[in-house]
Amino acid sequence: MADLAPRELRVLVAVASEGGFSAAAVALGMTQSAVSHSVRGSERRLGAVLFDRGRSGATPTPAGERALAYARRVLRLLEVMGSEVRGAASAAGAGLGAGAGALAGPLRIAAFRSAALHLLPRALGRLTERHPGIVPEVRIVREVGRGTAGEVLDGRADLGIATLGTTSPVPPELVGGVLVEEGYALVHPSGHPAPRSLPLIDWTENCTSYTREWWAGQEWLPPATVQAEDDGAVLSMVGTGFGMAVMPELSLVGAPPSVEITDLGPERPTRSVGYVTTPELAGSLAVRALIRELRAIAG
Questions:
Q1: What is the DSSP letter of 196?
Q2: How many beta carbons lie within 10 A of that of residue 18, not counting itself?
Q3: pLDDT, tens digit (0-9, with 9 covering 90-100), for 259-277
Q4: Contact by Cβ (8 Å): 211, 184
Q5: Rg of the chain over all Cα atoms, to the nearest angstrom
Q6: Phi, psi at residue 59, to the nearest 5°?
Q7: Which of 51, 68, 180, 290 could potentially form a cystine with 58 if both were Cys, beta carbons 3.0 to 4.6 Å apart?
């Protein structure tokens, strides 16, 4: 099987991102026939159909999704290689030490909402202060299903801030580590005489934690009767007296005065928040620098 060239990989990614061969041709400045020819050649070399063609455009097949994930990751590694090589050459020409001046260009990060609001900003502030050439690109991703780790696996992010643990382990194709272990607390309207009598509010992202097992053993916790879109909506509903909730510490940073936080004691559930990246990008200078800053903030 012949290797695919970077140009062929870019064509595959463009067809997927643009939703069709014609739109990809426009985006790439190619003819539609050239795009079709390139895709057919890639399919022939890989031995699989990568796109389902239809009147509405082109949709990746399961094999195509796998190919696209690798294509994005390979193309990103080529970008990182170019950036770091140019930076090293520039530093050497200026008589600086190895690695100096090499941190420049985009750094793509996927994070779930509370991490993006309360953990990531300080780390990025420190990072860009030390390395002003780095341009962070942050996407907020719901931590359900494949979550932020899926963004990294699919080549859409260099690093993901993810929930980790026995129910959400680091995928075998990635590497990662825990940054902070946070506990859960009971939140309820301030001054309410009987907060445990209130309806329980829940949100989908909370399902990724093993708190479900803990909840099942708490006789005072009723089944959730209210489902909110995210933890911000939960806090808002609690603050207006609509109910109570069990929430992790990151979600409670900056909670309004209308919300009271009650410790659940030593048997409270906890959640591990960490990072995930690919083995290849784990060695890149920008990703390593961000991990250092995240550890410094979390520590």
A1: G
A2: 18
A3: 999 998 888 888 889 999 9
A4: yes
A5: 23
A6: -120, 130
A7: 51
